[in-house]
Amino acid sequence: MKILSVTACAAGVAHTFMAAESIEKAAKEHGHEIKVETQGAIGIENRLTEEEINAADAVLLTTDIPIRERDRFAASNIFNVSSTAMIKSANKIIEAIENSFKE
Predict the structure, then answer these.
(1) Which residues form the domain of 70?
(2) Checking CA distances to 90, which of 2, 29, 35, 71 falls within 20 to 30 Å?
């Protein structure tokens, strides 16, 4: 499965990058391809391309703060989650995404 994620937190520092690291690790452990765009204090890093977005099976968006350019994902299969949930429960989030495709 191809999963994309955008992480962003209110301060744009620690939680943004901790959430990115957690979801990348969990997705890889489950055998999925993943790319994470961070929207931190220094702006957007590792920007997701239109081609990547179109090819993704699922897009995981944080909901702590409004993310920049959210309209890029209008046609995507979106899962909203907080950065805290991604940090603490990344494996459960991946399992929930997997289960949504089984239904």
Answers:
(1) 2-102
(2) 71
